[in-house]
Task: inverse folding
């Protein structure tokens, strides 16, 4: 069985500039194209070479052909958001939608993975870490394609949001996409084509794990990963739909196996205010540079971190992000925490309104211009005047949702000589490796 193809959503734009390096075939006209190209979005159509289209498909004439896409936005809504030109292999598909032209890259899964590993990780990472990441990225991708198929055939519409007068509980996942399998940004997996220079070791890691996936014995594992768990991993159901996954459970990120009950508010506060030993508790540049690209290394304070807001800053931010006028903010009250101490439900208490939000990403988006590092935090209220705090200090733990593999912890394990199979056993309890193709 050959590796399957994956359709990756790269961007949506009103004016596209792209360059064919080598020959591409426009499938509708069967013409061979090279060099610079432009496509414009006009009145719901794609204008290309003087003609109107609803969809365009360009197939590479040879495996060596590639295309450059100009001004792709990466890190959408994150603190390091920026634009860059990117190069891709495989086919190029342009589709007209209500919002503009959607750019989709159709690519062999193994080619896709070579890029993902180079985009998500540094090519200087240890080979065992790269092999572990190749297996989980492949597993996650194929699990999402299977999930998309199931959702498409389901009798009931999938819901990822519950809203009423008292609360908004929402999670963000792969099912946000309907036109392609996965997107190219952090919402799914970072995929930046062959822009991120791959190295021999990345190619070896993908080749040596070719076709390998994680399985729980019945289905492909929905293998998640984040930057830094903060010392204990999170269970799947506290971040996404309330469906437990046996292999995405609580794990202490160290040789020790015991861990505190971080769903308990007192235990969570003690844990977050301290800096317990863990694989991911490291500031070693050699290790961090294996996981963090240049823009991610703009800070090293993520195992434990602090953010502070004045009353005016916080009330304006929450009003703008939530669309709700709370008045002055009196309190931020964690109502429910997950196994890593991440807040699943947060009550915002204002002078005009009390409202509960969740899950973790909704909380992170509401309390930050981009994203808080995580929702595992405790709140200190300072300079209280007539029951109104003038400053809020959030002390937090970890970076990302904390479910599954902890990238920085896995990097430390790789440096310590753990084989990729042992790294996967550590983070995905009860799962095992199977060669699918």
Result:
């Amino acid at each position: 069985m050959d590796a399957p193809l994956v359709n990756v959503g790269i961007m949506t734009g009103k004016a596209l500039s792209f360059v064919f390096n080598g020959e591409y075939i426009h499938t509708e006209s069967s013409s061979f194209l090279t060099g610079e190209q432009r496509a414009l979005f006009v009145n719901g159509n794609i204008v290309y070479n003087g003609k109107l289209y609803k969809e365009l498909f360009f197939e590479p004439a040879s495996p060596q052909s590639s295309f450059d896409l100009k001004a792709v936005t990466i890190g959408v809504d994150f603190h390091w958001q920026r634009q860059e030109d990117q190069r891709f292999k495989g086919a190029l598909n342009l589709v007209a939608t209500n919002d503009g032209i959607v750019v989709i890259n159709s690519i062999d899964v193994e080619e896709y993975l070579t890029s993902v590993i180079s985009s998500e990780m540094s090519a200087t990472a240890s080979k065992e870490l790269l092999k572990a990441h190749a297996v989980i990225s492949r597993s996650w991708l194929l699990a999402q394609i299977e999930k998309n198929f199931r959702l498409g055939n389901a009798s009931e519409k999938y819901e990822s949001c519950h809203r009423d007068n008292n609360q908004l509980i929402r999670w963000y996942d792969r099912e946000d996409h309907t036109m392609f399998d996965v997107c190219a940004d952090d919402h799914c997996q970072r995929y930046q084509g062959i822009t991120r220079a791959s190295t021999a070791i990345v190619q070896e890691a993908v080749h040596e794990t070719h076709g390998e996936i994680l399985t729980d014995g019945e289905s492909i594992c929905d293998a998640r990963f984040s930057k830094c768990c903060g010392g204990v991993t999170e269970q799947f159901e506290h971040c996404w739909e309330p469906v437990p996954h046996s292999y995405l459970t609580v794990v202490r990120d160290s040789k020790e196996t015991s861990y505190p009950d971080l769903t308990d508010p007192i235990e969570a506060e003690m844990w977050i205010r301290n800096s317990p030993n863990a694989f991911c508790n490291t500031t070693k540049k050699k290790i961090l540079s294996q996981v963090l690209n240049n823009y991610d290394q703009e800070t090293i304070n993520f195992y434990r971190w602090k953010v502070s807001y004045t009353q005016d800053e916080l009330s304006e931010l929450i009003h703008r992000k939530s669309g709700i006028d709370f008045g002055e903010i009196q309190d931020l009250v964690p109502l429910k925490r997950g196994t890593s101490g991440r807040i699943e439900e947060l009550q915002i208490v204002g002078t005009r309104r009390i409202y509960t939000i969740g899950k973790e990403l909704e909380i992170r988006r509401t309390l930050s211009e981009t994203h808080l590092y995580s929702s595992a935090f405790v709140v200190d209220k300072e300079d209280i005047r007539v029951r109104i705090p003038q400053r809020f200090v959030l002390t937090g733990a970890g970076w990302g949702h904390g479910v599954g593999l902890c990238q920085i912890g896995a990097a430390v394990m790789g440096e310590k000589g753990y084989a990729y199979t042992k790294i996967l056993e550590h983070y995905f309890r009860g799962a095992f490796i199977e060669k699918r193709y």
